[in-house]
Amino acid sequence: MRPALLLPVLLLTLACSSKLERTKAEDLIRKDYPVVIPVTVPEKASAEKGSPAHLRLMTLKENLDKSGWFESSSKTEGSQETITFRLKPDAPKAIKAAPQGFSMPAAEAVFVRVLPNPVTTREGVRVIYEIRLEKPTAQFALFQALHQEVKVGQTKPRHATFERRKGAWELTGTDEVFRKVE
To answer: What is the C-alpha separation between 132 and 154, in angstroms, rounded?
Structure first.
């Protein structure tokens, strides 16, 4: 091979084999955080009296009644109780319409760090990173009543994929399900 052609091939090989640095991965992921952790309020929910689902439904009703932002009505047919929730006009604007109900912020999740040992795949690199639950809102008690295992300060793993495009690493996806704080 001619020496003039060897240098570009060597540089291209080095550029393609360079590793994704942890700090670069963290910088690319950090841009998508913090995210809002919502609590979802159904427009209508039913449960059999005495069941665990009924207990959760009653907890939801009590918490929403205390907030003053929702009107609730109850209807019983046999052992089934159905509760309907309606958003009051003076409710905070942070409460948004969601499919079959309403969504309101319960807390935020912030980026913590990328864990060591990224996995190289055919497409690029896959990393595991952590997020932490922070900044609980007044609705966090409701969120915790529905998800007893969740605590402020708790970390959760997430996954991100990166591809090398035009000599630079790009974040191509994460498994984060929540939306960025506005």
So the answer is: 6
Give 8: exposed, middle or buried? Use CB within 10 Å, 0-12, 13-18, 19+.
Answer: exposed
Distances (CA, A) of 160 to 11, 33, 86, 165: 28, 13, 38, 16
Residue type, 139: Q
User: H or E segment at 38?
Assistant: strand 35-42
Using alpha carbons, select from 73, 74, 69, 56 the residue that is nearest to residue 143: 56
Q: How far apart are CA 144 and CA 104, in angstroms?
A: 14
Contact yes or no for 71/86 (Cβ under 8 A): yes
Is residue 111 within 8 A of residue 33, CB to CB? The reply is yes
Q: Over the stretch 22-50, which tens digit does the pLDDT of each residue have?
A: 999 999 999 999 999 998 888 999 999 98
Residue with tokens 């427009």, as numbered in its chain: 43
Q: Going by DSSP bridges, is the β-strand pair 101-114/96-98 parallel, antiparallel, or unpaired?
A: antiparallel
Structural tokens at position 19: 């590793």
Q: What is the pLDDT at residue 10?
A: 43
Let me know the angle formed at the C-alpha of 135 by 134 and 137, rounded to the nearest 5 degrees. Answer: 130
The rounded distance, in Å, linking the Cα atoms of 173 and 181 is: 18
